[in-house]
Specification:
646 residues; alpha+beta; seven-stranded mixed sheet
Length: 646
């Protein structure tokens, strides 16, 4: 029983190859029978070769004709083959039946080869799908129990033993290990993880056992988002491919009209005999078909997407791979992009009436509702203090946050924002804040106003103090900016809601000359629009919710995959899975290389078509040679596109 099952599975997986082999075998035996004069056997075998080799092409061509009312290249091939056979029967020149069968055979072989070439790309992409196990080992009342991944709930605790794949995203509760994250982030070296660190589904656990708490639904894990985006990328055609598809529909009609004219006019215009006329018309149908042109783009772009995914660069579709290669200007967000985003409280300065603890407790009461890294850093430092969460909390992106804590309004944010609620900023504190900002620190002002919610918006608040936040510049940031300049990116700017001094300090450290500071989300949007007017194709790199409008406006939005917010990830066109800035230069190089290969493929495809058309008109090629030239060029450009897999 096992052998028939394997044979059946092989036949399904390699149906095109099996059809081509049977077609070739029947063609050879039919040709041999025809050579020996066994016409009965030849007329039995050769039609079978036509049917087996050409069935799939005929089915696809007729489906396109009847459902979409469009002519298909596959159908033109079948018409040419049947025309050659009909001409052979009519003239009793049976070698023409062999010519038609050879056309079908080469077309079938070409289809099988193209199928294998595309399967290689798809396998490279689908390898992502097998990165997560089907089950997870969950702790239930002290016992381990395996359940399907789909049944995991937020708050479940799972156990991952050495050498096992992490089943879903989570936070380590106990244990220490090294994790191989190459499949997700493209990092070649294992990463050390311990209590409190986040782990991702699809990464490989090293030598230590881990107890992990599920902190998001399994379907929201990083790898599942990657899989959904990759599936989407495979189905969406970029503008260049859409243009080629539209071109093919019109071009096929032109071929048919030209074929009819070529089959009827030459005997009257140039005195050709009807056999030569029809034969050359059939050859014309073959050599003029744009198969190679159709294969010039998508194999290349899919290969580029697969290559990027292996390196931790996720292109959401082929259009973005095209656009990233055309980028002339790039705008970077600061916090979490050029810097690590792992900000820490550097210093707390309070005015005389308050203590440092008072400042931290007031700030933490409202910042505990914030998703911003600065807010999280403040809450972490105030963790051991006795504070109560605020109510009626309202965040103003790019400015600050306010709420009611213990019947007093608390205002936390930049100096401009806090000044809306206080009478004045203490001069001594202002000077200290400016000094800290000049050192590259971000200064958060904390003020408190009595009287509860009824006094919101008044000017009776008083400053409690400031909190200086230090954010470390990414080690690879300066090298990335330098590399982008070497690649010829004409303009690199930094956009931030932070103050001018801090922004300039970071920009100087990484080598950016043009800085836009103290920006609201809509201000970042305006900067991107102005850059697009000057440079056309502009990329935006960001990670936060306040970057989402700019990411959407940019020609190419690039999000940080690990530190980025869900909104940024959904809005962006390209995701850097490991938050490694140097991958931006890799993506641009990949985009430019894909453009070059596509252009090369188009030139090759058009050159083959022109040479074959001229050869056919001059009578220097027959139908089998025309098929070999046509299908050979198609396979050639397909294999050329697969160069991007390396």
């Amino acid at each position: 029983m096992l052998y028939p099952q394997r044979l059946n599975q092989f036949t399904k997986e390699h149906a095109d190859t099996v059809a081509a082999l049977l077609c070739g075998l029947l063609l050879f035996v039919g040709w041999f029978a025809l050579h020996l004069g066994w016409l009965g056997l030849a007329f039995l075998l050769l039609p079978a070769a036509y049917i087996i080799g050409g069935y799939e092409s005929a089915r696809e061509g007729l489906t396109t004709l009847f459902k979409e009312k469009e002519l298909d290249v596959d159908l033109l091939m079948i018409v040419a083959a049947i025309g050659a056979a009909s001409l052979g029967l009519w003239r009793r020149e049976y070698h023409l039946i062999i010519d038609g069968a050879i056309l079908i055979l080469i077309f079938a072989i070409s289809g099988a080869l193209e199928g294998y070439a595309m399967q290689r790309t798809e396998r490279s992409i689908r390898s992502l799908m097998s990165l997560t196990p089907d089950t997870a080992r969950v702790l239930l009342q002290g016992r381990e129990e395996e359940i399907p991944i789909s049944q995991l709930k937020v708050g479940d605790e799972i156990v991952v033993k050495p050498g096992e794949l992490i089943p879903t995203d989570g936070i380590i509760l106990s244990g220490y290990s090294t994790l191989n994250q190459a499949a997700i982030t493209g990092e070649s070296l294992p990463v050390e993880k311990t209590v409190g660190a986040e782990v991702f589904a699809g990464t490989l656990n090293g030598y230590g056992a881990l107890q992990i708490k599920v902190h998001k639904p399994a379907q929201s894990s990083l790898i599942q988002r990657v899989i959904r985006l990759v599936e989407q990328a495979q189905t969406e055609a970029p503008p260049s491919q859409e243009f080629i598809d539209r071109f093919e529909k019109g071009y096929a009609k032109v071929i048919v009209v030209a074929g009819i004219l070529l089959a009827t006019l030459p005997p009257f215009l140039w005195g050709w005999d009807w056999e030569t006329t029809i034969y050359r018309a059939l050859t014309f149908l073959v050599v003029a078909s744009p198969c190679a042109l159709m294969a010039a783009i998508m194999p290349t772009l899919l290969s580029g997407i697969a290559n990027g995914a292996r390196q931790g660069i996720l292109f959401k579709n082929g259009a973005q791979l095209e656009k990233i290669g055309q980028v002339r200007a790039i705008a970077f967000d600061k916090t979490g992009t050029l810097t690590t985003g792992q900000v820490q409280v550097f210093q707390v300065i309070s005015v005389s009436e308050y203590t440092q603890s008072d400042v931290l407790k007031a700030a933490a009461s409202v910042e505990s509702y914030s998703e911003h890294p600065i807010g999280k850093a403040i809450v972490q430092v105030a963790g051991d203090l006795d504070w109560i969460g605020a109510v009626q909390v309202q965040a103003i992106p790019g400015q600050g946050i306010l709420g009611i804590a213990q019947e007093q309004q608390v205002i936390v944010g930049n100096a401009v924002f806090v000044q809306q609620y206080v009478t004045n900023l203490p001069e001594e504190l202002r000077e200290m804040a400016q000094s800290l900002e000049q050192e590259g620190k971000t200064v958060v002002w904390v003020a408190q106003e009595g009287g509860g919610a009824g006094e919101q918006g008044g000017r009776g608040a008083e400053v409690m103090g400031v909190i200086a936040i230090a954010d470390e510049v990414r080690v690879e940031a300066a090298a990335t900016i330098s590399r982008l300049k070497q690649l010829g990116v004409e303009q690199i700017v930094m956009l931030t809601g932070d103050n001018q001094e801090t922004a300039r300090s970071v920009a100087k450290a990484v080598g950016i000359d043009r800085v836009y500071a103290q920006l609201l989300p809509e201000d970042k949007l305006d900067v991107i629009r102005r850059l697009q007017q000057q440079y056309q194709t502009v990329a935006m790199v960001g990670d936060g919710i306040n970057d989402a409008p700019a990411l959407a406006q940019a020609s190419v939005g690039i999000a940080m995959g690990i530190s980025g917010s869900d909104v940024a990830l959904e809005t962006a066109d390209i995701v850097l899975m490991a938050d490694r800035l140097e991958k931006i230069a890799v993506a641009i190089h990949l985009g430019r290389r894909s453009q070059l290969i596509v252009k090369q493929n188009i030139v090759v495809a058009l050159s083959f078509i022109m040479l074959l058309l001229v050869g056919n008109f001059l009578g220097n090629i027959n139908l089998p040679i025309g098929v070999i030239g046509h299908e050979g060029s198609t396979v050639l450009v397909t294999l050329s596109g697969l160069r991007l897999l390396k």
